[in-house]
Amino acid sequence: MSTSKPEAPVVPIIANRKIVSWYEAPARQRVRLVLDSGSFQEFIGPDQREESPHLQVFDLPTQFDDGIIVGRGRIAGAPVFVAAQEGRFMGGAFGEVHGAKLGGLLRAARDVRSIPVLIMFDTGGVRLQEANAGELAVAEIMRALIEARTAGVKVVGLIGGRAGCYGGGGLIAGCCSALAVSEQGRISVSGPEVIETNRGVEEFDSRDRALVWRTMGGKHRRLLGGAEAFVDDTVESFRNIALHLIGAVPGFGPDVLKAEQARLEQRLQRFGLCADAVDIWKAEGVADTEAVPAMAAADFNDLANKAREPRYDAR
Amino acid sequence: METLSYRHKAKESATGSKRLAIIGVVASGNLEVLVERVLPGTECQVDINTAAEGFGAVWEAVVADFVERRSPGGLKLSINDGGARPDTVALRLAQAVRLIEEDDQ
Amino acid sequence: MKNWDTQKTSLAERLADGRRYASGKTVEAVDLSIFLQAVIRPGDRVCLEGDNQKQADVLAAALANVDPARVHELHMIQSGVVLPEHLDVFEKGIARKLDYSYSGPQAARIARMLFGGKIELGAIHTYLELFARYFIDLTPQVALIAAVSADKDGNLYTGPNTEDTPTVVEATTFKSGLVVAQVAEIVDRLPRVDIPGDQVHFVVEAKKPFYVEPLFTRDPAAITEIQILTAMLAIKGLYAPYGIRRLNHGIGFSTAAIELLLPTYGQKLGLKGNVCTHWALNPHPTLIPAIESGWVQQIHSFGSEVGMDEYTRARSGIYFTGPDGSLRSNRAFCQIAGLYACDMFIGSTLQIDLHGNSSTVTASRIAGFGGAPNLGSDPRGRRHPSEPWLQAGKEADPEGPAPLRRGRKLVVQIGETFGEKNEPQFVEQLDALALAKKLNLELAPVMIYADDVTHIVTEEGIANLLLCRDKDEREQAIRGVAGYTDVGRRRDAKMVQRLRERGVIHRPEDLDIDPLDADRGLLAAHSIKDLVGWSGGLYAPPSKFRNW
Q1: What is the DSSP string of C159-208?
Q2: Residues C202 and C253 in one domain
Q3: Between chains, do C546 and A209 touch, taking CB under 8 Å as contact?
């Protein structure tokens, strides 16, 4: 029985809109509230109507911004580029225009060199209806991201929305300088249903949601080292961690890549035979593994910091 | 997909000075409304692109009531609709007007 | 000479036949089908639990495997047709006739089988009505029931999901019927005795718990702004002015929204202590914030709810619990409580016609009635007064002399004008009428009759049918809150305006409610996880609701 109980949510008598849930907030609200008030300038905004050229064929409605918002603003006074995916439009999935907006932003960051990038992931991967364009876009984005990092740009990923960060999104996240994730966030390439279909329900029961979260969810990613930071589900927490990570991550180069290779080899060596995330947590010295899913963020972070300090130099 | 367009004369012009606002998400049962302050005087236009075909009469009634209640003069409202119900449409139209009438945040 | 003992003789024969497969009262699970073949006679009235929530699933499977040559023409009597096996017995020629109350999960299949002539339908009932007939003309000869555990004397512990069992056993055992119970385990000592061993003839150890449907859990994450608006209207436009302390909520998202708005919106309106103090209600997780915030004095429950056992155990000041600490539910008593001791029922439906009749039947699905016709009816046998009851009675009959005036229970239908798949809630004619014709039923399956409905709440406003003086006013009051449905668009606008001026229809603005303020920020909990937090970790939601 855990001594740290789940927290009752803070609910003032009239709900205070400043305590906004990241999970609940639309992408536009996340951008507006993470950045300094009034500092956001959107690139290729909805009034430009750069909508998907492909969805009509499928009798599907388009969205004016094709499900991603890109632009620049300031965070604590310092300039930053921002991209935010809307997870509720087509599952936040990459299509031609959507992908081009993110790829274009990263190329701009590469050319400017001095402004970091925040990517608010909320995606199931590539849109089936625009598969080829989407896959190409993911590849172009990964290249642009690495080129930007090579030019000295910090690229920080924030993950905690409804769609999680799957498929091509998971691959792009893996290229970032650092990732912050909340409990609701999930990071993976293959999704639970795909794993079940391909490997059978005994291997992975996609309806066992506790299992899904142990395998791909925010807390596990933090404990495994797949994400540098774990935060509470509030816009304020994400803003604070973004600031921190932009400051904390070092540069990028062959030494960092070699360190990351070593880090991943060591992970495979330590945990390769573990059948379940719980085995990994035990191996990391977590005493009460059953208590982890229900733990509040502050208690969890104390635990995670003891088990594994975030390593900023090996990604 | 069906495209609809309605032009009205509102009782008054919408207040505020923002040029542009947007609300909502395109998803099943939901819609986005992009509102732009680009029309002269009390003219008002609502353009709709919808996945649910054959509901022209309902859209017409919803838009007429909206113009009567909210006086969106000077505004062009553009909708991408994922099959939302009329009450959700009415809500988003009202939210869009409130947003564009608000002071800049 | 008339033999008055035939039932006792029959019971003795069945006991003798059954004991060939039993050791004491215990039957092995592997022998269950053969055992049932031995104790059930062709043409028997069999009650198979089939409750709203818990299912005697092992007994159902065994019954579906008996030899139809030995056991046939059974008359099945059960609250709920829930498991596939409940209909398999008809496909296989084991059962012929059916009397029941609720068929939610099997609604489509039961419709097909009824149209196809595979089931001879007795009638569809409301729960309390079916229980009543157990004692008059539908007394079971065999009852196949579900309990948590048994001891070697056949005493049973039914626990939080006691539900229908005491009622079923009472009717069966005291009319010399046979009672067979499935339990998860046979133990030395029960936590408490819910059914005495004298009333139970045989027990089978299933080695796993009986199946329970999580029916009463609504994820706060799925509650929409429009549902929140209808909830605000209900709280400010009905709960407050009538002073509703004693009530029952039907399941649904609008009522879940009401429950989650009490600690926030309700608090802001200053209503704590004045409304929602005494409930006939299952342990809804969405009521946890209101309970924790001190709104609730007492709740009696029809059954339990998956994941709520520890919470109810820890809140014995609120819920009914036994000396062992676990919840004690009882559907029959809770239905009576909802009928006579509550001043309001509020719930959702699928269709409402121009009179105010409401139905959940559609052309291809027959979901049955469950408890709503009972809870959503005006109890004309009631005699004790209360303020809301007297107030509603006065609105219904303003001219009559006060001492001779009946009170009225508030029966409220709440929902959005368009429901699932954008189907309109308001229709000129109920699908139930077409169904009655197709199935040759004397009565169209109406959930709540027009003359019981007192108020309708939609996002467009509240219609108070008590204040309507004739049929036309009633029709226009309904059209006046039917939004943009065809029914709503065909309203007589002038008459609707007059009704609004008289207070028969209240729009949100009339109650000082701005629809744009109906926002998810008002909910005391936004997610299942929030509910777990509110409960201090006592609520353990089923896996399908987790996102952690």
Answers
A1: -TT-TTHHHHHHHHHTTT-EEEEEESEE-SS-SS-SB-GGG--EEEE-SS
A2: no
A3: yes
